[in-house]
Write a structure and sequence with these properties.
The protein is α+β, with helices and mostly antiparallel strands. It has 13 helices and 17 strands.
Length: 499
């Protein structure tokens, strides 16, 4: 049906001449993410007023300070890039937000699928993934690709609220071409403030001109990208691509599961890794490892063991550049645009499979340390600028590698900024737990639609209010028994170290 609608429309974006036009920028239009549609679902153990949530998000867009850009529609330019067209006035026919809701007159624990939503446990635990709940949280007319926006008058933001008698699920859907993890964090944070008052809503910056203009150009940075000589191209790229296609053919089905790692588990795992490093670096200054380094090492080792063989790993880690790049970031507001680069880490089989986990985490830390400098970020942005909206992001490493990907939203602190306490219905019953009032108890993010290449992937949503890590993993169906065994082995290892 979508094909027929596109065909009858002549494949052109519908244009309203009176709309205001806002640009999107080169990182927004990169082919790697521009066709994706993202969905963030937050569970609250409170009954929230769905209409108040909707009016709060609409209020934010209409507030001023350029937030109205997010009430626009995506349109294709003649060169194939995407821009935003915003109605001069939002109406019932052309609203700022597409909004739907549904309600179940039962507690969430009494719902067959709602009762299976991930819950905190004392030990590491596996739970059904985001796709498992799509059937009971159906979102009518849900977009899942860029063309669903550019060939319709669909607003950028889609809000769907599912209510129970003691709990609420809030789902926000948006096209990746507009924002990534940090951008949606800023939207949710400003939305929370709009529910409380007008006074604290920040200005939206960078709506007319890219803050990265001039950065990563040939004139800006003569330093070469440090991984340039290891780019996979020519016959090496053909070999790499054929191996990936073979894996898709042999393992066409990929499943997602949610994982919760309690605070104590990760704290002990990090201390174990640091102890292993101190034993190697005797006399040297104490090495540093972040919890993210340890998580990435732990996850990468599992995938390598599950896939078997003696191949190296190529880990691609998303890296937001805002805190690392010396661009003229404004301090009087926030940015909602894509600002992510990549870190490429190649790990040889000996370290990947057999050396202490702390050494593997140290390799990951060193790779981030080299890639996250101002000079190297500018060098990578220079490469990205040459790609336009059709070019494939280059891959650096060994053509024989297991490809893995990690994204980590922990620093965005969405668990804390998503404060919807102002929308709690005062007369309703709530689930009794120790979650701070108005804060989510669980969340997950997923890319909508089908992507058969999405595998060997960890999306770390972040830490909740008590320091527990939540993330979603995309693996093969036969991997889950192996992962449960791997988790149990890690727990036994940590138990021995602490007895």
């Amino acid at each position: 049906m979508q094909f027929l609608r596109d065909w009858f429309s002549g494949g052109h974006s519908p244009i309203v001449e009176t709309d205001e036009v806002y640009p999107l920028y080169f990182l927004d239009n990169l082919a790697a993410g521009r066709d994706s549609v993202l969905s963030e679902t937050l569970r609250y153990n409170h009954v929230l007023d769905a209409n108040k949530l909707h009016s709060g998000l609409t209020k934010l867009i209409q507030h001023g300070g350029n937030w109205r850009k997010l009430g626009g529609r995506l349109r294709l330019r003649p060169d194939g890039s995407v821009e935003i067209h915003v109605p001069r006035e939002f109406t019932e026919d052309r609203p700022a937000v597409q909004f739907t809701s549904q309600s179940f007159d039962i507690p969430i624990e009494d719902h067959k699928l709602g009762s299976q939503l991930p819950k905190l446990a004392d030990t590491p635990s596996l739970h059904p993934g985001p796709r498992s709940f799509d059937s009971f949280n159906p979102i009518p007319d849900c977009p899942d690709k860029l063309r669903d926006y550019v060939y319709s008058d669909r607003p950028i933001l889609r809000l769907h609220v599912t209510s129970f008698t003691n709990s609420t699920l809030v789902t926000l859907i948006w096209p990746h071409v507009v924002a990534g993890g940090l951008g949606v964090k800023e939207i949710i944070s400003a939305w929370s403030k709009a529910l409380q008052s007008d006074d604290d809503i920040p200005a939206l910056l960078g709506t007319d001109k890219d803050v990265l203009d001039g950065i990563g150009t040939d004139q800006d940075n003569p330093v070469p990208y440090h991984l340039g000589p290891s780019e996979i191209k020519g016959w090496g790229f053909v070999k790499f691509a054929l191996r990936l296609v073979w894996e898709v053919l042999m393992h066409p089905q990929v499943e997602s599961r949610a994982i919760c790692l309690p605070r104590q588990f990760l704290s002990q795992l990090r201390e174990s890794c640091l102890s292993e490093l101190r034993a190697v670096h005797k006399g040297d200054s104490a090495p540093f490892l972040s919890e993210g380094d340890v998580l990435e090492a732990w996850g990468a080792r599992f995938i390598a063991q599950a896939r078997g063989g003696e191949r190296p790993a190529l880990i691609i880690t998303s890296l937001d550049v805002q805190s690392r790049l010396g661009a003229p970031w404004g301090t009087e507001g926030v940015y909602v645009q894509n600002t992510a680069g990549c870190v490429y880490t190649t790990i040889e089989p000996e370290i990947l499979l057999r050396r202490p986990l702390g050494e593997l985490a140290h390799v990951i830390r060193q790779s981030i340390h080299k890639a996250a400098t101002d000079e190297q970020i500018r060098a990578q942005l220079r490469i990205f600028r040459t790609l336009g909206h059709t070019g494939t992001i280059p891959i650096f490493g060994s053509p024989d590698s297991h490809l893995m990907s990690f994204s980590n939203w922990t620093k965005f602190n969405i668990f804390n900024v998503a404060d919807f306490s102002s929308a709690i219905l005062p007369t309703a019953s709530n689930v009794s737990d120790s979650t701070p009032i108005g804060k989510p108890t669980y969340m997950h993010c997923q890319a909508l639609g089908e992507n058969r290449l999405l595998r060997n992937c960890y999306n770390i949503t972040g830490k909740d209010w008590d320091g527990n890590y939540w993330f979603t993993v995309f693996l093969y169906p036969e991997d889950w028994v192996k992962l449960e065994r791997y988790i149990d082995q890690t727990c036994q290892h940590l138990k021995k170290l602490n007895t």
